[in-house]
Structures are given as structure tokens and as C-alpha cells.
Amino acid sequence: MTDWHATDPHADDRLHPTDPHAGDRPHSTDPHTPDPHAPDWHAPDDLAFRYADGSLPEADAWSLEKHLEHCTPCASRVSRAVRETAAGAVLAEVRQSVLRAAPKSARKPAPAPAPAPSPTPARAPAPRLARVLWAAGPALRGAWLSAVLIVAVGAVVLAYGAGYTGARPLLLAVAPVVPVIGVALSYGAYADPLHEITASTPSAGLRLVLVRAAAVLVVSLPLLTLAGVLVPSSGAPGAAAWLLPGLALTLASLALAGYVGCPAATAVTGGGWLCAVLAPALAAPGGRLTARLADQLATVLDGAPAQGAWAAAAVLSAVALAVRRPAYDHLGRP
The domain at 4-100 falls in which architecture? Predict the structure, then answer.
């Protein structure tokens, strides 16, 4: 997280106004971190206006948002500042459009419900679960999760239900592309209907991309590896041989997305992998296609040299991802 003093040398003066009784208030244990949660602290107008126009540094905005959760006066001040910006006029117009489009019955206040004779306290929803589902992204809530299950279960059904002996080679050829597609479907306006909202929060950018990528990997890696263990080998590499290539391709796709966006990066990395594996197997003369595919997979996956190359590719992709970190603050925005 960005240091407050690094982003604004006057941050403490703004967040801690001069007060002869300031020493009586609780402060953070870190002397370099301001304490916006002090009981009598309120955000000044200039801080609210900087938050509203987007010029407030990320760390300051994050701390202010936490303060607004329990401070009604500051929340009203920030809301008023937002209404005075260009976005405020748009929000007002949207509000008027919604009110005009709403039926008259919906505009009337709902009658107060009759008190129940024996009220039972309702169980509040778990906010942590909601935050986890939001951070995990649309990939784990949509068709992608079903596709992962279909790939894993389909391989087992082909092996034991249809007696197909080439289930593992096919699974190993497809498995590294599955998390790449899942990551692409986790971030962007084309996949997430709430993208405009999430992209405007302090947690957006590379942090949210990595959280959603981790959620995709946590789901896809064990499911597809377990499916590979259950099906016969048929001369193909081990069931876990695809893990490093899958990780390397996912990181490479994320690094490339900083330049060309997620859809194009997914097409390049996923398509490149499929071409590298399937094209030689299809072009090789003689033998069954399954055997040729197993031989090609052994070339690119099996053995210490191949796995070491994939590990090096993963490290290089992670470095490129870190170097391009600022680009992800605008990833997926028009």
C-alpha cells in the first residue's frame, strides 16, 4: 500500500487538524500513519472534493472510505462534493430518468407492515461472504465454472463410460487453456456487468485482477488435476504435468493484457499453446492421433528441462506483470 507521506507530505496536517487535546485521542501505533478513525475527526472540504474528482491518492481514498462507513456527517459532505462534480449532473439525470420510467405505484411509499405477534430477529447476511463472491468475479459465478466441471467430468466419462483411451492426452492439451479463459472472463466490461463500479473503487486494478486470477486457479487446478489422476495415462505425461504450464500461461496472459487487453491476450496465449501442441500432432505422419498427441505433450511437458523452462517463463511473466502494474488501473476501461 502507498505510504501516506510518500503521496502527500501534508496528509497528516489535513487528517489531524491542530488540536490542544489531540494527545488524548487514540492514534495508530505507526507514527507515520494518520488515524481517520479518531472519534472527533471529520474530513475537511478539500479532502472531500479531492476524493470526488478522483485526485486523492489511493491510500487516502481507501482510508476515507473506511471512515465514511461510520460517520454520517462526512458521508454527507462527500456526497455533496460528488454532486458538484461533472459526475453529479449525470447521476442526477439518471435518477430523474429512473423516476420518470418507474410506475406511479412504485413511487408511493409502501405501507408500514403490521407488527408481528412474536417477532423473530432476522439473520443478517454474512458481509464477508458477499465480499468474497464479489472479489472472486463473474467467472466463478457464471458459465465458466460449469465449463470446468464439464471438462473434468467429461474426461472421466470418456475414459470409463465410452472406453476412450486417449482421455488424458486430450485433457492435458486443454487444461492449461482453461484458467487462461477463466481469468479473461473475470475482469472487463464484456464479462462483468458491474465492471464500471468495481473499476472506480480503490481496490480495482492489478490487485483485483490478481485476486480473481487466484480464485480461478484455486478452482481449476485441483479439479482438472484430479480428473487427470482418475483417467488412464495412455502414454501421456503425469496428471500434474500441466500445472506449471497453466500457471505460466495465465501469468503471461495477464502480463500481455497490460498492453493489448484481456481478450487479445487470451487469444494469443491460449491459441499459441493449442497450436504448439495440436499442430505437430496433426501434421506428424503415421500412428494414431492419440499417440502422436501424447508424444507431443511429453516433449513440451515431461522431464526436468521442460518443467524448468515453464517455471522460468512463469517467473519472467510475473516480473513483466509487476513492471506493467500502472497499466491495470485503466484495464478494461474505454
Answer: Orthogonal Bundle (1.10)
